[in-house]
Specification:
Chain lengths: ~800, ~240
């Protein structure tokens, strides 16, 4: 293998191995992720409710399949189970642990528990004594209040005074009340968050499971999942992300390395033909090519594998820093991902070489005798046919995605990009000829002599031009779609939320949330005409996607009375006024298959299964979430009793009400911007990551391919110089050729992205107006086309400079 | 193998080769006797190259049979055909076609190594001595003159003791004096070892070294001239 091809394959494989390994690090971390065991460190076992929903979903073709989704809110445990657990041999005590957010009037957030839970960490008193009276509390020393002092704490209502009985020093901020007070503040009689089992001499987990049927018994590191639900619920997302990113990296490696090897084979056609002429069988030549690929692949994959550990760790840190992963989501580093990346990359490389080398059977030994093989510009019929099929497929998906909406549309948009890109790859040379005709004319106007030469060069090598056009189009289409689909959806979400907000004023909290009675207090203010408390949650529901059932976690809001007056989710059927009792309103996407009045089965935040009557279907599913529920229903099945915000109509002065609570502010409509959901933020970050890596990868492949292809034209350049072209003319020809070839690729890529994004925008917003930042778009086009142009012109410059007087090598 | 088959190095029977609608070879029947030195001549486009490719097993005829050492190559798979060529056919090309990254010895022994064997040292030394490259074995092709490169290519063709050596314009890229040296070497090889040799050329001076000359035109054999002189060949050439 020539040095150029070797370097190209080496870089591409090292990069692929690094990406695959980094995804492996994420996968392994997700696989092993448990929130750290802190608060339950002294417990032998922790008993919790089932933290996931599992059901059988009807699939097209192959019967029902089991699907599960994690719960984001706590499934509580009945206190009656505690007695049965105490009867298990070895159990010393069972502590019913409750947690609820507490806000001090200093603005400090802490978590409230009963004093009995203090032994679980254990929290130890550093001063004072345990709480004995209903108005006594033990605080963390960091709260800055001395024993005997009085502190005002807000839990369910207005802040109440508590006397500080004692202090604990270690651990995160906590407030311990007497068990009775804690149970009252917790507000769920007969229930607890978890039952913590204390046993010095160890206890049989299976015996505990028998005593707590239907509940989850966690021991060892799994106890952490009971402390912090966010880690367990993020695991699945990270597993999916790691798998799809790693798969994408491998796919791209396949394309890039395959392209490089095909190119180097074409370049060495003469050498291989010669080997064949002196008696090498086709397999001997193939094996040589595979050996060469292995020689480049082993050190590259090894290097990439080592680097992948660092990259994986960096990705993990970045995701935790940006809040797309919960802080408790630990990093697991082992040699496993590096080894897997090494093996998978090497395997893919050698397989790619094998596939590429199959072309070698077409190299006839006869060619060794001729000067060189002329590239045929005529596409094989199968290629045209399958390209046309993919083009048709893409266009029909386009039809589907503008007529459907939501998840179905988003899924079909993914298919749309893919089929258009495959069509481009297959029809690349034909596209090259077309682009050559159109852009060539323009280029000739600019520069008659060099332009004609450039047009001729790029058309006589349509196959080569096609293999450059495809990655350019791929990088631009892929990155454009990824980046701007995300911004289109995010923009639509914000716009829908803002357009659908009919409140004049909004009460928001800077702490964990608003106590329920705040909404009632606002209602009593003269001049207020409507008040709607809003509480966010997540429900699990079976939705229809592409004709199949799929279990999904959907963003939901519990909305109180007067919702019809304070918010406008744009109902297309039914009335929002009817949203009370056991009812539900669904977005158009989620309502697929239901009619007003039909019973909708779903799982509430804590995993309770309910069947609700559908009373309304609305359009603004992005701004309001896919599910609207009555406020009381959500409050009864959520982790806390706090509201997220309160929508108010009327121009009354609400500041006195807000002042009665800690951390409550009043905003007008303009100042209130809905936060993007965690999913959108995760998607946003992942889009960036994917674009940076995959598009970067494609550009690496493009640059090496182009540099290699240009270097291979040494003879052609020398000939041009011999017949009288000046160095300046040759360079000018190359630059114009780059304009033709890269321009065609950029136009095709932009077209694919534009078509896809328009379809997506139509699907999610109803208007064919994708949200694309012109600066990012320009940067993307310049980045891809610019690096391509550099890869053409720079090697040619050095090549032409080296030979001051032309000679044919 | 029949006695008759072994007397012939290569035989073509009604061989036709078409490229699309072009008939490059049109029903050619010919037999190259063992130990003979035959030149094949013809103007450009007469089918010389196609004749060489088909007769040497590099290409498969569209119709008719080609036998090399009695084996019908039309029936063999690509891999088997390659092995047969490796063992029984040697080639010398106009532009030498040595592998630039290998030294002279590696180039010469390449066909043997491709067959998975090691070169016989005595035979290798003999071949190398005959082409006069004994002191050049460690040189790369780029360090040799054109004549030396062609001698190395000839050694590569001879090292497998082939049934037949095909030389395609072996002197086309050489100056007249070097060309004459190479041709003399070919003649000596045939005389000394009984090597069958087919020389494709359009140079009457070169063809004159052969035992007989075939004239090819429009895909057919139009004449044969035995014991040619350069003048006779040139005269016949003019008549074509």
């Amino acid at each position: 293998m020539k040095k150029g091809a070797f370097t190209g394959v080496f870089v591409a494989l090292a990069f692929a191995s690094m990406l695959v390994g980094a995804c492996g690090v994420l996968l392994e971390s997700a696989w092993r992720a448990h929130a750290p065991v802190e608060r339950f460190g002294a417990a032998a076992a922790v008993v919790t409710g089932p933290q996931s929903v599992e059901t059988r979903v009807e699939q097209l073709g192959d019967g029902p399949a089991k699907q599960t989704r994690p719960l984001t809110e706590r499934a509580r445990v009945p206190l009656s189970t505690a007695d049965r657990l105490r009867a298990v041999p070895g159990v010393e005590d069972v502590i019913a642990d409750v947690s609820f957010p507490v806000l001090a009037d200093s603005g400090r957030s802490m978590t409230g528990h009963g004093w009995a839970s203090a032994v679980l960490r254990p929290y130890e008193l550093s001063a004072g004594r345990p709480p004995r009276e209903a108005d006594e509390v033990v605080l963390s020393r960091s709260a800055g209040v001395a024993p005997g002092g009085v502190v005002r704490l807000q839990v369910n209502g207005t802040p109440q005074p508590y006397r500080v009985a004692g202090l604990v020093s270690a651990g995160p901020d906590a407030a311990f009340f007497t068990p009775e007070t804690a149970a009252a503040l917790y507000g769920r009689p007969g229930q607890a968050d978890v039952l913590a089992v204390l046993a010095d001499g160890g206890v049989d987990a299976d015996a505990l499971r028998q005593a707590a049927p239907g509940l989850t018994v966690a021991t060892g590191p799994a106890r952490g999942d009971a402390e912090d639900l966010s880690v367990a619920s993020a695991r699945r997302d990270v597993l999916e992300l790691g798998a799809s990113l790693g798969g994408g990296a491998l796919m791209t490696a396949l394309l890039v390395v395959g392209g490089l090897i095909v190119l180097s084979v074409r370049e060495r056609a003469r050498e291989f033909a010669l080997l064949r002429a002196v008696g090498a069988t086709p397999w001997q030549v193939r094996l040589q090519l595979m050996r060469e690929t292995r020689n480049a692949g082993v050190p590259a994959a090894l290097l990439g594998g080592l680097g992948s550990l660092a990259l994986g760790a960096w990705m993990h840190t970045a995701m935790v820093d940006r809040g797309v992963l919960p802080a408790g989501f630990g990093l697991s580093i082992s040699p496993l991902p590096a080894l897997a990346a090494f093996a998978v990359t090497l395997l893919v490389a050698i397989l790619t070489a094998l596939v590429a080398s199959l072309r070698l059977s077409r190299i006839r030994p006869v060619e060794a005798l001729g000067e060189s093989a002329v590239e045929s510009a005529v596409l094989p019929r199968w290629r045209v046919a399958s390209g046309a099929v993919f083009l048709a497929l893409g266009l029909s998906t386009l039809g589907a995605s503008v007529t459907t909406s939501g998840a179905t549309a988003v899924a079909s948009v993914g298919g749309l990009v893919l089929s258009l890109i495959i069509a481009t790859a297959l029809l690349g040379p034909a596209a090259a000829l077309l682009g050559n005709r159109v852009l060539g004319r323009a280029v000739r106007l600019v520069s008659p002599v060099a332009g004609r030469m450039a047009q001729h060069a790029s058309s006589s090598a349509a196959l080569r031009a096609g293999s450059v056009i495809t990655p350019v189009a791929l990088a631009i289409a892929f990155a454009g779609t990824q980046l701007f689909a995300q911004s289109t959806i995010a923009h639509a979400t914000t716009v829908q939320a803002a357009d659908g907000n009919r409140a004049d004023q909004i009460l928001v909290s800077s702490g964990p949330g608003l106590p329920r009675e705040a909404a009632e207090a606002v209602r009593r203010v003269p001049g207020v005409t409507a008040v709607t408390p809003v509480k966010r949650t997540t429900v699990v529901m079976t939705v229809r996607e592409m004709g199949e059932g799929a279990l999904r976690s959907l963003n939901a809001q519990g909305v109180g009375a007067d919702a019809a007056a304070t918010m406008d989710p744009k109902p297309s059927a039914g009335r929002l006024d009817d949203l009370r009792g056991d009812t539900v309103a669904l977005s158009r996407d989620a309502a697929d298959g239901f009619r007003i009045g039909s019973a909708v089965p779903l799982w509430l935040g804590d995993g309770t299964r309910v069947e609700l009557r559908l009373v309304a279907v609305y359009e603004r599913g992005l701004g309001f979430g896919d599910v609207l529920l009555p406020h009381d229903l959500v409050a009864a099945h959520s982790a806390t009793n706090l509201d997220d915000h309160v929508l108010v109509r009327g121009d009354a002065d609400l500041r006195p009400v807000a002042a009665a609570y800690s951390g409550v502010r009043v905003l007008d409509r303009a100042a209130f911007g809905a936060d993007l959901s965690r999913e959108l933020r995760l998607q946003g970050f992942v889009s960036l990551l994917v674009v940076a890596m995959i598009a970067g990868f494609i550009v690496i492949g493009l640059v090496t391919t182009l540099a290699l292809a240009t270097a291979a034209r040494r003879r052609e350049f020398a000939l041009l110089r011999l017949v009288g072209a000046t160095r300046r003319q040759v360079l000018r020809m190359l630059r114009l050729e780059a304009v033709i070839v890269l321009g065609t690729g950029a136009v095709i890529g932009s077209l694919i992205a534009a078509v896809t994004l328009t379809a997506l925008a139509t699907a999610v917003t109803g208007l064919p107006l994708p949200q694309a930042d012109p600066a990012s778009a320009a940067l993307l086009l310049l980045g891809v086309a610019g690096s391509g142009a550099a890869a053409i012109v720079i090697p040619a410059r050095t090549m032409l400079r080296r030979h001051t007087s032309p000679q044919i090598p | 193998m029949t006695a008759e088959a072994t007397a012939q190095a290569v035989s073509l029977d009604a061989v036709t080769r078409t490229y699309g609608s072009v008939r490059a070879l049109d029903g050619v029947t010919w037999t190259f006797p063992r130990g003979g030195f035959t030149a094949v001549m013809g103007p450009s486009g007469s089918g010389k190259s196609t004749f060489l490719h088909c007769a040497s097993g590099l290409d498969r005829p569209t119709a008719g049979t080609v036998r090399i050492g009695g084996v019908d190559i039309g029936r063999l798979s690509e891999t088997k055909r390659t092995r047969l060529r490796r063992e029984r056919v040697g080639y010398v090309f106009q532009d030498f076609n040595l592998i630039p990254s290998m030294d002279v010895e590696q180039n010469i022994t390449l066909p043997i190594r491709l067959g998975g064997a090691a070169a016989e040292p005595a035979w290798l030394a003999e071949v190398v001595r005959r082409v006069g490259l004994s002191d050049r074995l460690r040189h790369r092709p780029s360090e040799l003159s054109g004549g030396q490169q062609q001698r190395a290519a000839l050694a590569r063709a001879l090292v497998t003791r082939p049934e037949v050596v095909f030389a395609d314009e072996p002197t086309g890229a050489l100056d007249p004096r070097t060309a004459r040296d190479v041709l003399r070497l070919l003649r000596e090889t045939v005389d000394a070892t009984g090597q069958t040799l087919v020389l494709v050329t359009h140079d009457p001076m070169a063809a004159a070294w052969a035992d007989s000359v075939l004239f090819l035109d429009e895909g057919r054999i139009v004449d044969e001239l035995a014991g040619p002189s350069a003048a006779a060949v040139a005269a016949r050439w003019e008549a074509l």
